[in-house]
Protein 1
Amino acid sequence: MSDVWLVLGGTLTGAVGPGISVLYATYGELITERAGRINLGTEGSMLMGACFGFIVTVETGSVTVGVFAAMAAGAGLSMVMAYLVIYRDTNQLATGFALTLFGAGITAYAGRGYVDSIIGGLNPISIPLLSEIPKLGQALFQQDILAYIAYVLGPLLFLGLHYTRAGLSLKAVGESIEVAFAAGRNPHVIQIAALAAGGALAGLGGAQLSLGLTHTWSEGMTVGRGFVAVGLVIFAMWSPLRAMVGAFLFGGAIGLQLQLQTVGAPVSPFILDMLPYLIILFVMALWSRASARAMPEGLKGVLKATT
């Protein structure tokens, strides 16, 4: 019984850190998809953020500068995506995947001299009183600044999407470019802005991984988290608040995986490595019909065009 409580407590404590990096990428992809675009380059933007955020932090000695560099790197890759799919009319699914491969290649090259280097990075900040809540306080309120920003960003995005002119314009473009254009909006500008914001947030997720969670850089360290973020947007039915649930579910799965390894559970390590992704696939399958109904009309057209 003590092992069970140890695993459950460790899972809760270990859920937030891995969940935050995925949450930022999910926020970014959600904004992009609300504008009627799918960016499979999210994984590449996360890698760019993790790598260049780490490099700039090492070279400047400033974590703050490194975080902004990570956002710029992630946004830069997404701007390439924006140019290709909006102005050159390339297939956005193929383009996004190609940019992920590009991001993986350039970060492997640029970061080769920094592999396994250790830096101070982002330090945890304890919130008085809240951090003293048993288990929950340690998990939620002894985190770095990026975690606290992520907590607040979800509700702010929800309010922004539903109650601001910018958010309503974004959703209008995602539903129908023609209708949005007829209403006096510029769909291309809105989609470019959405892709840039999405890339910046994915880069921020990468920075949280290298500067906040691990304090190191290693090649391919995102291990598919960007693709998980794309799936979590569907699970969340394009809602920032549900995205928080999905991201922490993924983080909890990673925490469970680590705890089972710690207590020596008689499960193949290969199964444990797959566990977080299997859980997300299972949950997505349960929610597939509801997600299909909530999908923006613009995305339905994209998916039909690729089948």
Protein 2
Amino acid sequence: MKDKFSANSRLWSVRHCREFASFKKYVVNPRNIAFLMQVYRIKDIKIFYPIDVDATVKTLNEMKNRVDEGQNLYYALDGKDVGIYPFIIGDNKPFVLVLPGGGYGDVCSLVEGYSTALRLNEMGYNAFVGQYSVGKNAHYPNPQDDVAQMLKYVFDNAKNLSIDTKNYAVCGFSAGGHLAASWGTKTIGYEKYGLPKPKALFLAYPVITMGAKTHKGSRKKLLGENCNDVDMQAKYSIEKQVNKDYPATFIWQCKSDTVVSFANSVMLVDTLKKCGCKCEFMPVDDKVHGWGLANNTPAQGWLERAVELWQER
């Protein structure tokens, strides 16, 4: 493949890569690295986010190669910056919908989405990365509406894509973890939209509550002018919406997370246990937020453990 990316490639070259034209406005995100993309290299993302540079470079090159082979890597679903990235292996394998984080202000697919999807492909599963409503468009229930739209797209095209839709999973990071967790509820998730329940959820350092222990930036963007309304806080606090029918859930987070309080994961785990729901919790002795795939860290292997939980009979 000509013009392969390397750790020293400028982010500008990623944004303006011909193969990424259909999603160029989303690929270099979050915004605090995008505005200096002519200066920063791929390896410089580590200044802001604890990414695995090698995995990021590998993933970008694989994405470029897939487009060169004729695959479409992004489908826009409407006019509100909502879409889906298909990472397809076909073979009638199950799929995972991956929802990166970003505090409901960005969708950090470069940090948490693409590499996770590619790893799922390597493990033998189809994957989709979701581009959902953020910023001024993040007001509830827009993000949940977006997930419904993404899944309807997958279900409607399952035959052509050779995908098994019977036992899908949803994976989310940080605020994307809140979105994934909300999809597992009946009140604001799958049942509200008349769609099948996911078999499993993979939640990485998730925002769970909209109460006192929340990530305030995520709450402000999601609830807007109602961010201090206790009824709305309760409606979008996942720990208050769980019942015995909640999907099997894998959760991991650093105990001293400096961005999202560890209490978020603990309160969901406690609620799941009280309801008798299938759950695996992986607390990590560190303080980092945003590890994503977490290669070469104390959290390495979390995705394999999550998939194992998903595939248990």
Protein 3
Amino acid sequence: MATEQNDQEERGALIVFEGLDRSGKSTQAKRLVEKIINSGRMAVLQAFPDRQSPVGEMIDRYLRGEIDMDEHALHLLFSADRFLKKKMIKQHIAQGVDVVCDRYCYSGVSYSLAKGLPEDWVRVTDQGLPKPDIVLFFQVSPEVAASRGGFGNERLETAQLQAEVAKVMPTLRDDAFWKSVNADAALAAVEKEVFQLYTELDRSKPLDVLEKI
């Protein structure tokens, strides 16, 4: 099996938060980074898209409704945004730094499939990215997510699209490294569950490569 690095003790971990918009994953990703640092380990937070990068700025303009874009081009931009962080992710993990991602390729695939793009094409554009050690899948109904503050501020935050994404994203699940989180629970309970799952991570094997999604 392809791997990203040789065996070593206490490498960093790649932790991905996925779910619908307004599912609470961004808040919990930030809290996890804080708890990791407070526990004595090193950690960084990486949100996707990275709206500060040249590619991310273009995505940001689209999401804010400032520009229009072909859906195929948009999908490739999201993938490119992640690949631009590949080297950084690998370096951090090799140095023992945990990388916590607020969204990853599973969002890109889910949204593009929900929009009707070809599945055989959508699923291959992120092959070669570092494979997460764990995906924390925040489960919340589209209705609950839509009722939370800020919903609708961006282009993809529509009830219809979120409902389609809610159907698609679970089909990408890989039980080998996906864990479901009840995002309807109280914030403190979610935070506790997330940190418990973090403490159970197995760092004994090298970071793997995504060969399929």
Protein 4
Amino acid sequence: MHIHIVLVSDQVLPNLIPALMERPDRVVLVATPAMSTKGMTARLARLLRREGIDVAIREQAPDAGLSRIQDYALDLAAWLEGEHPDARITLNATGGTKLMALGFIEIFRGQGRILYTDTAHRCIEVLPDGKGQTAPPIPMNDVLDVPTYLAAQGFVFERAASDAADWREGAATRKRATKYLGQNATALGGFIGALNRLADLALEPLPGSREERLTHPEQTLDQPPRGDWSKALGQLLQAGLIDWREGSPAIAFTSVEAALYLRGGWLEEYAWHIVKDAGIKNAGIGDVRLGVEGHWGNSPTSTNEFDVLATHNNQLLFIECKTLRFQGGNDNEIAYKVDSLGDAARGLFGATWLLSARQPTQVLQDRAKQARIGLIGPDQLPRLKEVVQQWMEPNP
């Protein structure tokens, strides 16, 4: 029998990942009153049980006073010996307070393996045993999909638009047009803004619902399209998104989905396709979802949305997409929203990016830099796959 001992802390992932990698028969959660009150013990227990791992909870653990911590660890060791005398013991010393980790390491060194989760470098360190011998680090397996990662952060995943088969079929049909818009965003800045405006005019809210309906599909550009604009309209026509006659300023959106796509959804799809393609080429992206909806555990009636989320080597990539040009205060609001959502969803590790199809203002650039948000403007969109692949590389 294999048993993991885990010191519960605010950071769930470093305690969860080794357990999901090794699949022990039982995980013993050592919880202080503070961790139980905050719900961290229950959250970790729920995640482990969802994966079919048996969980035992040992509460009232002290988080201060080395002698008290060591006495508690000795009592736990005696209990384990009595309950499972032949078990292999692994102590995950990543969690708890620093003093708790030191106290438990002193007691359990020589009785089993001691692990430390180095999430930043994507490996599990094995601490020296009682004889001073050290095993090499264990590379992390990719064990977290998007819903599980979010659950570890306290977010309840409800749905993702990209999970629907009909949505994926439509995205495949639009892929060529999506890639065209993304690859040519710099030259098409004005076109993207004009189309966004017309699509917004074509839609109106559906009463009593968060959905929208297509009420005015026929719209008119300010002038007959030429050059880059005409080529782009040709791509949209081929994809079945609009009805249009070459040289005419009049267009008609073919469906509510087409209008939503051209109001800005295309950039989300561009990010989704690029991240998926990067993962296929490098066999590295564990999961990619678009249009994720859910709620934080303490706010079940308030829905939150994420444009694109991906997991790779147990880290989360959050991508927010914007196709409109904002000024001043709106840029501050956007940066604050993206920073807050990204920080809450990914925790200490991973990355938050903001994709902008229009040239970012200096205000947005400054705010993104302050918040450590990766800002990717239209000039960088053509090389987004390279940026994704760089993020996928292990830290040195």
